[in-house]
Amino acid sequence: GIDLVDSENTLSPYSDIFGLKRFRECELIHGRWAMLATLGAIVAELSTGVPWDQAGKVELDGARYLNFNLPFTISQLTLLEVLLVGGAEIYRNTETDLEKRLYPGGAFDPLGLADDPDTFAELKVKEIKNGRLAMFSMLGFYVQALATGK
């Protein structure tokens, strides 16, 4: 198998301070967020016709979903999201084992995709590659929005 954690470290002097494991964890988490953001930007723009970078300016008074008014505001939804995601991150960071912190399994793997060790290793590589691609995709979205305003 591929040893992704304890491979030769060439990131000196930062590796002495943070360790390669911390860089790996940050890259994976940022990649996951970028995958969600990339999909969200594309789906939001295709479904509403509003450019993804302007979507937050559309409805500040009330939230709508499928042309139905929701009984809460965008500010309340934002606060709820911060609390829920913050709580999930606090819970995730209480785990001391890096592998369990990054790949929790259990309820987060209801289809049992990671039961086979070889398949699990392959899925890890696919996830990091897709995460890197999504990070560059979001960079492209930002550059396009800044350059063209669209």
How would you describe the overall organization of this protein?
The protein is an all-alpha fold and 150 residues long. It has a single domain, classed as Orthogonal Bundle (Chlorophyll a-b binding protein). Helices cover 60% and strands 3% of the residues. The protein has 5 helices and 2 strands; from the N terminus they run ααββααα. It has a two-stranded antiparallel ribbon with strand order 1-2. Helix 2 crosses helix 5. The protein is globular. The relative contact order is 0.13. The mean pLDDT is 83. GO terms for molecular function: chlorophyll binding.
Total count of helical runs of at least 4 residues:
5
Strand order of the largest sheet: 1-2
Distance between the termini: 45 Å
Topology as a string of helices (H) and strands (E): HHEEHHH
Looking at the structure, the CATH topology is Chlorophyll a-b binding protein
Low-confidence stretches: none
Q: What is the second-level CATH architecture?
A: Orthogonal Bundle
Question: Overall pLDDT, averaged?
Answer: 83
What does the largest sheet look like? 2 strands, antiparallel
Instruction: Summarize the amount of helix as a percent range.
Output: 55-70%
**Number of structural units classed as domains:** 1
Number of beta-strand segments? 2
Rg on CA atoms, Å:
19 Å
What share of the residues does DSSP label as strand, in percent? under 5%
CATH superfamily: Chlorophyll a/b binding protein domain
Which outline best applies?
globular
Return the CATH class.
Answer: Mainly Alpha
The structure class reads mainly alpha
